[in-house]
Amino acid sequence: MADFLERKRSPLSAIVKEKIIEYIEQKDLKPGEKLPSETDFVNIFNISRVTLREAIAQLSQEGIVYKKQGKGTFLRKKPLKMESGVENLGGVTEVIENLNYEPSTEYIKVEITEPTKEIKEKLDLKEGEKIVTYYRKRYANKEFAVYSISSVPIKIFKENIPKFFPKESMIRYFEEDLGITINGALAEIQPFFFDKKEAKSLKISEDILFLLLKQTVYDYSSLPIIYSLDYYNATLFKFYLNRKRIH
């Protein structure tokens, strides 16, 4: 997988892209409406045409705008904007629902394997213990929002290993069906780009920035029960922290 620092990106074009999205929201443009011309945007943001075209190209790749030759750039759909704090622990489903969007899931595959060294350490597994890993694409209002890879010790499921989670949420399944109470999680966030091969397999643009949330989820006895990699589409999600000064 590609490392964020190894990818050459234009930070200015990314900023301009967000500014264009803000402009769309402020002007309450509707799908099918025309955006300002290149000249207008160049004057509005005081930027070069090259930077503007890079930003428009990113919006086009993300399916937000489209161009008509000789006529200009038009809005294809309203961009979803999801802002959430990271202090409260919840699964992807809960995050999407709390922002008043409809969650849905596409299961890519479910496999039983030996854990990698990292997962073995994260889940505190003994030699020979296996894991069940779920690969899922998560959607908000039918728009691709998160790619999730969730690994669970096979012993957690005892006899019946679910092929999918009826209520969309793995955490809800654990609490309501297995009677396991979730206590907390240890997490880290980092920026991430998928490489060309991975992006193609996921049917997404390799230019989309993701926010990778790595976390180990613990039950009330401090037993690690889930190790997950959740790749949040940064064109949709913005996370914030509520920080306080310690005196």
Q: Key terms for this structure?
A:
247 residues; alpha+beta; Arc Repressor Mutant, subunit A; 2 domains; two-stranded antiparallel ribbon; 7 helices; disordered N terminus
In angstroms, what separates the terminal alpha carbons?
42 Å
Structural class: alpha+beta
| Poorly predicted ranges | 1-10
Mean pLDDT equals 86
Classified in CATH, the superfamily of the largest domain is Chorismate lyase-like
Total separate domains? 2
SSE succession:
HHHEEEHEHEEHEHEEE
Biggest sheet statistics: 6 strands, antiparallel
How many helices?
7
User: What is the CATH architecture term of the largest domain?
Assistant: 3-Layer(aba) Sandwich
Strand content: 25-35%
So what's the overall shape?
elongated
Q: Could you estimate the helical fraction of the residues in percent?
A: 25-40%
* Widest β-sheet, arrangement of strands: 4-5-6-9-8-7
Radius of gyration: 21 Å
Tell me the total number of β-strands. Answer: 10
- Give the class-level CATH name of the largest domain: Alpha Beta
